[in-house]
Amino acid sequence: MEKFMHALQFAAYKHRFQKRKDLDGTPYINHPIGVAHILSNEAGIKDFDLLAAALLHDTIEDTETTLGELVQEFGPRIAGIVAELTDDKNLPKAERKRLQIVNAGQLTSDAIVVRLADKIYNLRDLNRSTPVGWSEERVEEYFQWSSKVARQLFGHNVQLDTILKDLFLQRNIRFD
């Protein structure tokens, strides 16, 4: 529990100036907290290291945090999960999105459940409020892309699979 609380403080500090792209400009930290909440309350995951990784999952990608810093602060398991989930920001966005689909099957089970919860949070967020500057077409494209990623990840947590399939079904995306 101590490591989890440290991860919460660490993530809140690292994301302190960031906002979500919704109309309200929600504090970014709500996103990793929401991902950890989905894992704990909806997927039944009680592994505090895994929940800590969920809190930290965007720190390397979206802040100045380094992998070495996470290893030092939280150990190799948590840092490794975060590293698996980190896109290479040096690549163009389209390539990063393509690689998430292609590399999905190479993720560990720990990284997979965090990725699934991350998708659930983002898709629910899109259903609640279209981000500033996004068209309905872009929202639909995000759902389609997310379904391609999720398709590669199903089979690790029944609860998360069911939630995602329901979200996709609402958009007439099927997995027959």
Automatic annotation (TrEMBL):
Record domain HD/PDEase: where: 24-132
EC number, UniProt record: 3.1.7.2
InterPro entries cross-referenced by the UniProt entry: HD/PDEase_dom, MESH1
Record-annotated membrane-spanning stretches: none
CDD domains according to UniProt: HDc (cd00077)
Cofactor(s) recorded in Swiss-Prot or TrEMBL: Mn(2+)
Catalytic activity from the UniProt record: guanosine 3',5'-bis(diphosphate) + H2O = GDP + diphosphate + H(+)
Family: Belongs to the MESH1 family.
Function: ppGpp hydrolyzing enzyme involved in starvation response.
Name of the molecule in the record: Guanosine-3',5'-bis(diphosphate) 3'-pyrophosphohydrolase MESH1
